[in-house]
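User: Please predict the structure of the protein below. I'd like the answer in C-alpha cell form so I can feed it into my own downstream comparison script.

Assistant: Understood. Taking the following sequence of 135 residues as input:
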Amino acid sequence: MESFSWADQQLFKVVDHAPAKQQLIDSNYGISEIDMIVPSHMHWDHISGLEDFSPAPVWVQEVSFQEASKGRPPAFVASKFDDPAINWEFITLDDGPFEVFEKSKDVFGDGSVVLVDTSGHSHGHLGMFLNLSES
C-alpha cells in the first residue's frame, strides 16, 4: 500500500485477494439487498472496500471516525475512508445496558442484533451480539 513505509509494506502485503463484493456476486447475493455495513472499527484492514457497497450506509460511532481521521498508517489509511461514495452514518448506542456493557443499540428493535461498545483496541470499537431464535 502506497501510504505505508517500506517496513510496513513488508509486514502488510495484500496478495491474491478476493474482494468481498466479488465473493457475494459469485454466491448470487444481491449487493442491493445490503441494508447497512457495521465494521467493528476503522483500521484499514477492516474497512477496505467499503466504496464497493455504496450507497449502503456504514454505521460507526463518531468517535471511531474521528480517531481514524487523525490517525496515521499503518493502523489508519485515509484513502480507505475518505471516499465521497462511502455513506457514513454515525450511530449512538443509546439503548442502555446490555449484558455487561453500559451502552448498546438494538439494531432491529427485537433483540436479535445488538451492538455494544467494546472500545480498547480502538476508540468506538463495536461488538455485536447475534441472538438467534431456537426454531
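That's the full C-alpha cell string. The two ends are 46 Å apart (CA to CA).
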